[in-house]
Amino acid sequence: MNIKIGGIGAYLPKLVVTNDRISEFVTTNDEWIVERTGIKERRISEGENTSQIAIKASSVALKRAGIKGEDLDLIIVATITPDMFMPSVACLVQKELNADNAAAFDINVACSGFVYALETANSLMKSLNYKNALVIGAETLSKVVDWTDRSTCILFGDGAGAAVLVNDEKKGIINSYLKTEGKKGDSLTIGALEFNTPFTKEKSETKQYVEMNGREVFKFATSAIIKAIDGVLENTDVSLEDIKYIVPHQANVRILDYVARKLNLDINKFYLNLDKVGNTSSASVPLALNEMYEKNMLNDGDKILLVAFGGGLSYGATLLEW
Ligand code: UT7
């Protein structure tokens, strides 16, 4: 039995924030941002939380898959920007979708989250005999961005993408490749709560914002994508030439230009939409997949390679037949 994507959906907040708009409150400009990153605009939530945008994306995916919330056995949300520590975003989604028969939980693998969640669902569906699962990548990164830091606030956007996974006799997920390098984790962080108890020895001040060593992450990303692509194809009978599209996590178009050159691939093999949405972390891969679906770019039998990298530091890839 194989596990395939039976329905895909996405949701973007309505507010479009252009580079010019950001240059009204930090010293930057459209030219620098476009040239150094490829980003022209992003969507920013005006208050809709991660679970709310996740639910909207999920409703589209469920409809396209032709199933209802009550048919779900499993809900996994990949996010680093949950509404709260508890309950999980997945449980909030479960409540709203009346998915009373599902087990629901979140995973935190930053921008690689969707790829990790797909394989977690794939494995659980096979081991526990589940019929239907919902895998979501959803982020409201605008909550955790320091809007006074021009080196990071220009990069990120909010959004959600969701995929319904179903059983199929012939096709679906072929292979996954997952890796993390915890020793490099300091180069991309978001702080959490601090100790402030009657027993705390030394109070510290943690920044609850994205902090990034851009150059370090850039260097990591270029090699991680290549390793993940090689890794997911290894021991399969699929070669790079057989891949119709690579759907990458998008943080900076220069990272993907570099990878395309290194692998001798036409950049058009990579599906890119970060000019419109920026870096949406775990939502970027399903947002792109949804756009491709809506443009009728995904046909039966196409071999698609999803690849992601990010905080952790982490990276991973999924090879699938559509
Ligand atoms: O999904 C999470 C993974 N994250 C990533 O993959 C991000 C990877 N890194 C990057 O995409 C790039 O490193 C950045 C886009 C973050 C930065 O680009 P860069 O080419 O590495 O620039 P830089 O940090 O080396 O900065 C170059 C110059 C600096 O000025 P000086 O010191 O040379 O005078 C910065 O202060 O650009 C300046 N700068 C800016 N100027 C205008 C930094 N941010 C801005 C800005 N507008 N927004």
TrEMBL record:
Residues in Beta-ketoacyl-[acyl-carrier-protein] synthase III N-terminal domain copies: 105-182
Domain Beta-ketoacyl-[acyl-carrier-protein] synthase III C-terminal, chain residue ranges per copy: 233-322
Statement: the UniProt record of this protein carries the keyword Lipid biosynthesis: yes
UniProt-listed Enzyme Commission number(s): 2.3.1.180
Pfam families with a match to the protein in the record: ACP_syn_III, ACP_syn_III_C
UniProt KW keywords: Acyltransferase, Cytoplasm, Fatty acid biosynthesis, Fatty acid metabolism, Lipid biosynthesis, Lipid metabolism, Multifunctional enzyme, Transferase
Keyword Acyltransferase: yes
Main subcellular localisation: cytoplasm
Subcellular location: Cytoplasm
InterPro entries in alphabetical order: ACP_syn_III_C, ACP_syn_III_N, FabH, Thiolase-like
Active site residues per record: 111, 249, 279
Stored HAMAP family: FabH (MF_01815)
Its biological purpose: Catalyzes the condensation reaction of fatty acid synthesis by the addition to an acyl acceptor of two carbons from malonyl-ACP. Catalyzes the first condensation reaction which initiates fatty acid synthesis and may therefore play a role in governing the total rate of fatty acid production. Possesses both acetoacetyl-ACP synthase and acetyl transacylase activities. Its substrate specificity determines the biosynthesis of branched-chain and/or straight-chain of fatty acids.
Similarity section: Belongs to the thiolase-like superfamily. FabH family.
Domain observations: The last Arg residue of the ACP-binding site is essential for the weak association between ACP/AcpP and FabH.
Subunit structure: Homodimer.
Protein name: Beta-ketoacyl-[acyl-carrier-protein] synthase III
Species, as recorded: Clostridium weizhouense
Lineage: Bacteria, Bacillati, Bacillota, Clostridia, Eubacteriales
